[in-house]
């Protein structure tokens, strides 16, 4: 009888032992596949507060990548050292605390990247939208709550620049409508559209000029003028990006694309928060999306959001999820090795009589070890096949759990950074909708290779207990 036949009969003859090993292999294979899936999962999240509108795509900064770039800049500058790198400045305050400040170049959507995407076949038009920028109203009054302490507020209004005002998200979604005048045209300069509440308070009309300067340096900063071309009314309140009367809906003023940077003292250094891309043919939406994702830009810097507000971010860009997945793989591999070695040690200890008889019949230690390896591989193959049925469910559940954990960590990090990192940018409020995992042939092959390797090494380690003993010692243990 050859080794294969003996191994197969041994599996049938000892069903409890075989089932135990089978279950262990199924669990190991399933968890290892879950770890592999977590590294390449697609995380579906949704911008709960600022959804895209119609057949459009929206490009915005990826928050996890932003934190990664901040960490890289901090390391390059040096811990507890003042300096600037890549638009991020680190300095020590008079009270001894350290503060980091990200400038507009660090935060902005790069216009050249937006232009590349706009060149994709099927994109009809694109818009750039600036961050809501606080500025000081020089020759007019803002609207504020008289019962609220304004000492912590900047005492200003907020201006929002658009390349094409009709493509602003609040305009396109119907939250505002013109009651007088017109919207701002592309390539216009030094023009604005104000709310009817602000117009009534200051007796404003189209053609009047408003003056602004830097809200953080009201006394010394240069003043800039913008001519009113339209007055709007809100059908639904514009949700403020920050607290305080500076950002309230009635104090929101739409301007041309580059006016906010001038009025805030950042001329030539814009801060674009969003890029909106309008699809010409709705039926071609999926094809255009696929073509956009092929554009050669630094995608790790951005999230691409579809017309339902859904974001599809690779797990490697979803904070520390890839790192956690690697840790899971290492943990599974280490624990699996220990468990399998213990199983085979127990296995061989309880088969001393069988080993002694085989040796008495002239079998070598090598062939006996090979029989055990054959048994392990046969059971392992069955367990691996069975695990392929459980892996997709476990992988998705694991990826979802890891994504939730990384999202919570990102939120905690954002809160921790709020007091130490200065920026006018406000991160979008995202809610996770689910995960997508794809099990590829490479992942299956990797899983199979790991199972075979673990079984081979475990049987080899456990087999040392046999190999180091002399035949006489083994035969004497039979009694």
Automatic annotation (TrEMBL):
Keyword Nucleotide-binding set for record: yes
GO cellular component: plasma membrane
Domain MacB-like periplasmic core: 104-294
UniProt domain ABC3 transporter permease C-terminal: residue ranges: 327-418
InterPro entries: ABC3_permease_C, MacB_PCD, Macrolide_Exporter_MacB
Localization, UniProt: Cell membrane
Gene Ontology MF: a single term: transmembrane transporter activity
Membrane protein topology class: Multi-pass membrane protein
Enzyme Commission identifier(s): 3.6.3.-
Keyword Kinase belongs to the record: no
Pfam name, any one: MacB_PCD
Enzyme class, first EC level, given as a word: hydrolase
Lineage: superkingdom: Bacteria
Key words of the record: ATP-binding, Cell membrane, Hydrolase, Membrane, Nucleotide-binding, Transmembrane, Transmembrane helix
Entry protein name: Macrolide export ATP-binding/permease protein MacB
Record organism: Clostridium scindens (strain ATCC 35704 / DSM 5676 / VPI 13733 / 19)
